[in-house]
Amino acid sequence: MPEHDETLADALRRRIIAGDFAPGERLSELAVAESLGVSRNTLREAFRVLAEQGLIEHIPHRGASVASPAVADVVDIYRARRYVEPAALRTGSPLHPAVAAMRAAVESSEAALAAQEWGVVGTGNMEFHAAIVDLADSPRLARLYRDVAAELRLAFLAIDTPEALHAPYVPRNRALLELFLAEGGEVASRELTDYLVESEQTVLGAFTRQRRG
Fold first, then answer.
1. pLDDT the model gives residue 213
2. Max CA separation in the chain (angstroms)
3. What value does the CA radius of gyration of the chain take, rounded to a whole number of Å?
4. Do the Cβ atoms of 116 and 55 come closer than 8 Å?
């Protein structure tokens, strides 16, 4: 795929997970192409890439729309996270450069929590977990997590209680980081597994309540 299309796909991906387009929102090829200053053919290729990442859905006779994750998607996202993240933490070193990114993400989330900037809190949380995956030194796992996290952000965008969704996990991220540094990856990995189970239950509870509402 041409480099320009990759850049365009990344730009659209950032806009989608930032909430510029709502889950389920139809994406007009003409309007989006004009706003980005690209051809519709170029845009279609970017849409194809994002569809492969689970961020866009193609509906027959209606075109493209932002994906709207279902409960089964959330369950599968957390299944993937429990396979990847605890293993990366268990084998990671407290001296790894990714630890600095983990700490920076925690501090960013703590500052955003104090300011009640929930979108920034959510971003900091995702950056913290991405840094955990980076402990594995695997570009492929990093790409996998990027796509999984982007789909999870779509589920977050469908929930209108961001404080309840994000606030409890800011101190838990801090505690997990300190546990990793003090006790090492084996102990921290077990804690992270429990953390992800609880996080899944929190997200699913909020997600299903939102859908019923």
1. 56
2. 56
3. 18
4. no
Cβ–Cβ under 8 Å, residues 176 and 99? no
Structure tokens at 97: 């450069």
- CA–CA separation, 39 and 61 (whole Å): 20
Strand bridging mode 26-27 / 56-59: unpaired
20 — phi, psi (to 5°)?
-65, -30
Nearest CA among 200, 203, 202, 178 for reference residue 188: 178
CA distance 165 to 94: 28
- C-alpha span between 153 and 165 (Å, rounded): 12
Residues in CB range of 157: below 8 A, 6 or more apart = 17, 19, 22, 23
**Residues in the chain where the model's pLDDT stays below 70:** 1-6, 210-213
Q: Say if residues 132 and 179 touch (Cβ distance below 8 Å).
A: no
Gap between the terminal Cα atoms of the chain: 42
pTM score, two decimals? Answer: 0.85
Residue 142's Cα: distance from chain center in Å? Answer: 12
